[in-house]
Structure formats: C-alpha cells, structure tokens
Design brief:
It is a single chain. Strands 3-2-1-4-5 form a five-stranded antiparallel sheet, with helices on one face. It is about 10% helix and about 30% strand. It is an alpha+beta fold and about 160 residues long. The radius of gyration is 25 Å and the shape is globular.
C-alpha cells in the first residue's frame, strides 16, 4: 500500500508555500522570530530582525527590518519596535531588552515598497504600533483560592453576637 492510497486532505493547504509576492498594505500582528547583529554593505553596524506575520491574514509570511545603529532613523525605529512589544523604551537599549522583545506580538503598519533593478516589490514595515492587534484567544486559567482569614497572634478581637 502506498502513502497516498489512504488519501491526504489538502483542502486547507494554500498553493505556493514559497510565495514571495507582497501581501496587501495594512495593519498586521507580527512577532519577532530572529535577530542578527551584522554589518551593512557600507560598513555600519546594524541589527537585522525577521518578523513572522501572526494575523489577521497572511499568517506565516515573513517581513524583515534593518536597524542601522549609527543613524538616528535606525535607532528611532528600533526604539519604536521595542516599545511596541510593551517594554519601557525610554531606558538604554541593550541585548537583554532585544531578547525580551523576541516573540512578543505587536501591531505594525505594512506597506508595499516598489522594487528596482533586479529586486521585485516587497513588504516593509512602515511603522510600529503598540498592542497586539485583535485579541488572541487565551487559555482559561484557574483562579487562586483565597485563604481563610485568621487574626494574627496576640491581636484582640471582639466576640459580638450580631443575631441578638
């Protein structure tokens, strides 16, 4: 018996899993997946971050952003990203802060940037926004039980009969 003799349901699978065509402009929920400290072609230190699209559509697609560390624009965008993940971006940015931002969902405005030369059109992050977009379902957590209150040793208490 062959692997496909039992049949495989592919009705929910999108064709073209390696689709690199840009998705529509708009606000999307993203989460940073990977970062790399690297050097730009011009010799500037920079951080490259790969973001996964979480929703509301195009989940699983990727967007990248590059933060040149000796330019005001790059530092401003990095600060916006860190702040969008809910961290206090008014502090000195460091490796621990960047690591803490990884995997946290936030909202970003995505644009389509026109390609030039050998490069085709691509998605770019236009701006970082606070919050994670549409609320994601969360697992129900058990509420902690409140302990019975007992007076501290040596505390004077009144014995009052409230019923009469």
């Amino acid at each position: 018996m062959g692997l496909l003799d039992q049949g495989i349901d592919v009705s929910n699978i999108q064709v073209g899993g390696n689709d690199n065509t840009p998705f529509p402009e708009g606000d999307y929920t993203l989460a940073a997946a990977l970062y790399e400290e690297t050097t730009s072609k011009a010799g500037n230190e920079m951080i490259k971050i790969e973001f996964n699209v979480v929703g509301p559509t195009h989940a699983g697609r990727k967007v990248w952003d590059y933060f040149v560390l000796n330019q005001q624009v790059g530092l401003s965008r990095l600060k916006s990203f860190v702040g969008a993940t809910g961290q206090d971006a008014s502090q000195v940015l460091n490796t621990d802060m960047l690591r803490s931002a990884m995997g946290k969902q936030f909202t970003a405005s995505i644009k389509v940037e026109a390609g030039s030369g050998a490069y085709s059109d691509s998605n770019k992050i236009a701006s970082y926004k606070s919050g994670a977009g549409a609320a994601q379902p969360r697992a129900q957590t058990e509420q902690p039980q409140q302990a019975q209150a007992t007076p501290a040793p040596g505390l004077n208490t009144a014995n009052v009969d409230w019923n009469g």
